[in-house]
Amino acid sequence: MSEDRKARGIQDALRRLVSGLLPEQPWEDDEAFSERLERTLDSAKEKVFSSLNEQPEMELGPHISDLIRGKLVHDNPTPDPALRYSTLFSRFTTLPVLDRKWEVLYLLYLLSNSPPTAELPRDIYHGAMPTMESVPEEEEVPLTGSFMGLHRLPDLRKGDPAGTLGSMATIATQWAGVADVGDERKPKALLLKENGWNLDPSEDTLLSAMPYTLLGVSSTSLEFAETGLTAPPAPTQADIAANPLAKNGAVDPGAGYFPTTKLILPTNLPLPIISLLHTLAEPSLLYRSLNEFVASTDDATSGLVGQSLRAAIGLELRGYLTLIGGLEGEIRRAVSMVGSGENRAIGTAGVTLKRCIVWTREATMGLRLMSVIVEQAKAKKGGQLISAIHAFATSHGDPFVHSFAERLLTNVTRPFYDMLRRWIYDGELSDPYLEFFVSEQDPALVENSEGRKGASSVWQDKYKLDEAMIPSIVTASFANKVFLIGKSLNFIRYGCGDSDWVNGYSKDTSKGLSYGDTATLESSIDEAYKITMARLISLMGDKFKLFDHLSALKRYLLLGQGDFVALLMEGLSPNLEKPANSIYRHNLTAQLEHAIRGSNAQHESQDVLRRLDARMLDPTHGDIGWDVFTLEYRVDAPVDVIITSYATRQYLKVFNMLWRIKRVEFHMGQIWRKYMTGARGVLRALDDKVGADWKVVRCVCAEMIHFVCQFQYYILYQVIEKAWNELSAATASPSCTLDDLISAHASYLNQITSKGLLSPETSTSKNKNKSSNKPPEAETIFLGLLHSILKSMLKYKEAVDGLYSYSVAEYSRRQDLGARVDARTKGGQWGMTDADYDMTTDGESRSGTPSGFRRPGSSLAAGGDLSSYNDEMLLSLRQRLVTIEAEFKELTKTLLAELAYQSDSEMRMLGVQLNFNMYYEVVIAKPKSAGAKKPATAAAAAKEKEKEDRERREREARDREAEKEREKRRERERARERQKEGSRRSHREGKRGAGGGGGASASASGSAVGRDRDGEGDYFFGFEV
Questions:
Q1: How far is CA 759 from the centre of its chain?
Q2: Is 127 left (phi over 0), alpha (psi -120 to 50) or beta?
Q3: Taking the complete model, does pTM exceed 0.70, yes or no?
Q4: Could you tell me the sign of the dihedral formed by the alpha carbons of 788, 790, 791, 795, in that order?
């Protein structure tokens, strides 16, 4: 029952399928169509049921699957359909519904290969379609959807007396590939061979003209014609980026258009012949265009490598000409073998159009490849052109393309290797068309370039490495070695004046270079690199004393020669205290010579000492010698390649900072020596009055000396000495080059300037909002803080000098008064009278007291009081010392707070060394994070600034009130002292009036005075002891 149902289902499906696919012919009536339909349906049933009754061959299943998968891969550019088929096939094989899965797949495969059904156009019959009266029973009409198509063409029907179906047979002969001649089926090639003489023009004529056609020359049968100008391709994204006008077509209409040529084929030839001629037209047109490219003479844009490309393509075209010459000989031989009157085709002689295609197939591939290379070579030259050709040799899987590109590169790279040989063996750049990856720089562009640090350098600015012109046949490291070799040879020849060595080196080592000899090329480059680098470093170190100059700069400009610096500063100190405009340079040079002769610098070479000189900077109003004095060290070529003018300025900056620190150290040493000398004499006698002040001064001086010593130690040893060791290690490397020396010296200076608090990069975020038009020194908070601290030390030194002058004056006054009192006492008098005392004290105050500490308008003779005047002067000195001390400590705390947040560990350690015992109570504010809230508007910022100004004014007001209170307190103390002095003076006058005159009275008075001085021990003629 199930089998019958299955058979009926198959019959219904076949009927629907045949009814839908079988077309109705116009000459058939309904009865004829039904009869043809039934006949076709019976034939289909027979084939289907016969295949169903056969046992399936399971071993054919994988083969059918592979056929389907191969067809999908072949017909689609992407593998996605094949992958989808694999997924569907795995699911299809697991279906339990179908029993004959392989037959279904094979049917689908056959249907996919069948040609599409289409109704033939009526006009090809040149009239109405005739009707067929009958169809023989024995004639089998194949299914329209069969994968083999129509096996046989229909014969002429009885209703076609004009024989119009003959044209259909001709068309079928051309396209189907087979035709019926009686009962024999003959292929298309056989038909063409037997009926070739019916072509117009004949195949003999076409073959005779073919050598000319393949050479791009017109003939009677095949003619070339110019088609005019062809539009350029659409602009790419790179073109639009380079020229934005190209996006909208707003460019020169004539730019980029190029002439094209076409081959005119006869129109009355069969389509197979036209197809063959189309295939042979490709090498003809390619040869014609390539020949025009070879004949062009645009050398200015293509350069030497472009000329070599033309020559290489011309060489390949000559080989093509040889091929065409051989082909022409074969064609002539075949034409001569064919009899003129015999009914015989030229194909029987062994030469056909198809065979010409086979003979020229490899040549066509070469012409096609050369045409692609020529198209890609447009707007390229030098290394870019070599890279474009080299891409075919490395990135293409076809062995023919690889070998052809390699053969082209052998000829194309000859100019490149000639330039390379001149560069690595002679140091000369022979590149008239700018094709080499090394090029000369324009001096104007170098001077105007951003980031320049100093004048143009012969080494760094004469040549440059153009990475865009580096061909892909060499690596970037290889190109950099080549660049250094040639630049070193050029520098040795012209910068060092050693052209003899370069010429000898070129004669001894020069050898030919060519493409493909990679081992020889690499060994030549490595050998040349080692020899030239060793020679250049040897010249810089031995002949031009580079390392001696670097050491001299460290010893003299970076103050590494201690005895020389001490003698120089001691000798120059008197002169440098004068105004800058009153100092003469010959005095400075004389002291410099004295310091050299008195120190170990006298053992230096004369070349180094000759370059060392003392000079003065341009002074400004109010400058003294300390502010404008500097040392300079002159260097000549070629050493100035490393020690550039920018590096010299950096050395001078470091020297000026170190010289200021040395100056402060020198003055602090003077103060210390002055105090230690006076402490054993003058200051000991005044310990009751200024002893406490000198104790404070001694402590503050110790703080300042500690600061100077620690900071100087940090710069000289932790910064300069460490950087010097790194520089020495870098220059001692056997593989060191001049570029390595330049970079090592630049790093050496950068470490000194950055860690020595000179570089703007060391400033904190507080300075980032400052205007950019300020010099870098003004933007460094560390350098500003350091200079402020050094200035406060110098001001403190001046105040201490004032205190010492006051102490000496006070000591001298006391000694003078004591001597007078002793003289009067020995004479039997009462010491000094009031009139003598006032006159003497007035005179002493005018002569013994330094004028710098006398207030304007004060005069003891005019009623002033000596004790009060001295007290005011001492209080003024004390106030100045306290103010400067507070300023120094505040600046030191600020510097310590800034150092605490530095990224460099050594700079943080400097802060620890300056405050090793936590003497300074530093309030370290946490740095603001990147996401900290900032004033959103200008009004908020202005309000914040106004608040800060108000707080500052309040602090200043509180400080002024506190100062007024202290001044009132001091005034009250001075009033009490004057009141006590008045009472004591009245008491002494009363005693003198009661005692009268005479020797006894004088003796008694002297005894009283002596008791008052010796017994009480508090006052001595009004002066506190």
A1: 22
A2: left
A3: no
A4: positive
Residues in contact with 436: Cβ distance below 8 Å, sequence separation at least 6, in sequence order? 382, 383, 416, 419, 420, 423, 429, 469
CA atoms within 13 A on the CB side of 459: 24
Q: pLDDT, tens digit, for every residue of 722-735?
A: 999 999 999 888 88
* C-alpha gyration radius of the chain: 55
* pLDDT of res. 241: 54
Can you give the pLDDT at residue 833? Answer: 58
pLDDT in tens, 106-158: 878 777 776 554 443 333 333 333 333 333 333 333 333 333 332 333 333 33
Cα 495 to Cα 637: distance, rounded to the nearest angstrom? 7
Give the range among 51-60, 260-269, 620-629, 793-802 with minimum mean pLDDT. 51-60
* Arithmetic mean of pLDDT over the chain: 75
| 936 Cβ contact list (under 8 Å, min separation 6) | none
Q: Is the peptide bond before 116 cis (omega within 30 degrees of 0)?
A: no
CA dist list (Å): 307 to 381, 382, 389, 439, 667: 10, 10, 14, 20, 77
Q: Which residue has the tokens 């890609």?
A: 376
pLDDT digits (tens, 9 = 90+) for 930-984: 444 444 456 676 777 777 778 878 877 887 887 788 778 778 777 777 777 777 7
Q: Is the distance from CB of 361 to CB of 355 less than 8 angstroms?
A: no
CB-CB neighbours of 713 under 10 Å: 13
What burial class does residue 124 get, using C-beta atoms within 10 Å of its C-beta: 0-12 exposed, 13-18 middle, 19+ buried? exposed
| Per-residue buried b or exposed e for 581-609, using 16+ beta carbons within 10 Å of the residue's own CB | eebeeebbeebbeebbebbebeebeeebb
Rounded to 5 degrees, φ, ψ at 774 are: -80, 150
Q: What is the pLDDT of residue 721?
A: 93
The tokens for 136 are: 């023989």
Written as one string, the DSSP assignment of 149-192 is --SSPPPPPTT-TT-THHHHHHHHHHHHSEEEETTEEEEHHHHH
Looking at the DSSP bridge assignments, the partners of residue 179 are 186
CA distance 988 to 557: 68
Where are the strands (E) in 446-538, listed by range? 463-465
Please give the Cα distance from 400 to 398 (Å, whole number).
Answer: 5
Which pLDDT score is estimated for 688? Answer: 84
For residues 101 and 89, the answer to whether their CB atoms sit within 8 Å is: no
